[in-house]
C-alpha cells in the first residue's frame, strides 16, 4: 500500500532552512551532513543506507512549487521519479516544455496527492516542502512524517510546521539514534 511520507531534516529549534534558504553552517549544508552525501569514503552503511534505500524505493514525489523551483525541479525528474507540483499558477517554461516528468496540478492538494499515489503504484510518495506538507496535513492526505532531528540550533529561518489548522496527533513508529541525528518516523493519526 502506498504511503505519502514527508522526510525532512530539521534543527532542534524547528527550522528546515535559514532565512536565505540554506541549510545552515558555513557551507549551507549543516542540516544534511548526517546523510554523508558528500562523503567519498565509500557507500553508506547502517541507518544512512536504510534511509537511502527508502528514498530510492519511492515511486513519485509531491513537491511544493517553491521547493520545486528552488531545486530546478531536480533537473526534470527526481532520480527518475515523476514529480507532482500543486500550484495555483501555471508552470514556468522549463517545467512546461523541458521536463516531461513534472506535472503541475491546479485543482488542489488532494488531487495532486491522488495523482502522485496513482503514479507511485504500491510505492511511497515522497513529500517535499513545508507549505505543501502543512496543506497535506490539513487536507488529511499526508500519512507519515519522518524527521531527522539535527543537534544544532539555527536560531532563525524557515520552520517546518509554522501554521497548522488544528492539533494533529502523531504516533511514533520508529526511532533511530545516531551520533549525527535522531531519526523519528511518525504515522499521522486519523
Keyphrases for this structure?
single chain, 190 residues, alpha/beta, 8-stranded mixed beta sheet, two-stranded antiparallel sheet, 5 helices, globular
Overall radius of gyration: 16 Å
Task: Report low-confidence residues grouped into runs of 5 or more.
Answer: none
Strand neighbour order, sheet with most strands:
5-4-3-6-1-7-10-9
- DSSP E strands, number: 10
Query: Helix amount, in percent?
Result: 10-25%
Mean pLDDT, nearest integer?
A: 88
Summed up, the helix count is 5
How much of the sequence lies in strands comes to 25-35%
Q: Quick one: biggest sheet?
A: 8 strands, mixed
Output the helix-strand order: EEHEHEHEHEHEEEE
- Give the overall shape: globular
What distance separates the N and C termini?
17 Å
Quickly give the structural class: alpha/beta
Amino acid at each position: 500500500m502506498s504511503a505519502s511520507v514527508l522526510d525532512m531534516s530539521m534543527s532542534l529549534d524547528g527550522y528546515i532552512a535559514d532565512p536565505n534558504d540554506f541549510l545552515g553552517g558555513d557551507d549551507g549544508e549543516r542540516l544534511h551532513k548526517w546523510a554523508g552525501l558528500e562523503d567519498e569514503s565509500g557507500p553508506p552503511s547502517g541507518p544512512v543506507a536504510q534511509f537511502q534505500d527508502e528514498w530510492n524505493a519511492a515511486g513519485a514525489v509531491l513537491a511544493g512549487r517553491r521547493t520545486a523551483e528552488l531545486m530546478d525541479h531536480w533537473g526534470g525528474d527526481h532520480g527518475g521519479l515523476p514529480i507532482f507540483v500543486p500550484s495555483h499558477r501555471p508552470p514556468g517554461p522549463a517545467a512546461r516544455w523541458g521536463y516531461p516528468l513534472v506535472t503541475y496540478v491546479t485543482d488542489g492538494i488532494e488531487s495532486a496527492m491522488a495523482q502522485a499515489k496513482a503514479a507511485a503504484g504500491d510505492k511511497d510518495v515522497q513529500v517535499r516542502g513545508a507549505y505543501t506538507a502543512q496543506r497535506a496535513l490539513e487536507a488529511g492526505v499526508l500519512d507519515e512524517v519522518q524527521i531527522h532531528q539535527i543537534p544544532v540550533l539555527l536560531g532563525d529561518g524557515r520552520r517546518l510546521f509554522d501554521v497548522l489548522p488544528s492539533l494533529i496527533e502523531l504516533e511514533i513508529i520508529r526511532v533511530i539514534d545516531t551520533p549525527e541525528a535522531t531519526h523519528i518516523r511518525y504515522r499521522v493519526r486519523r
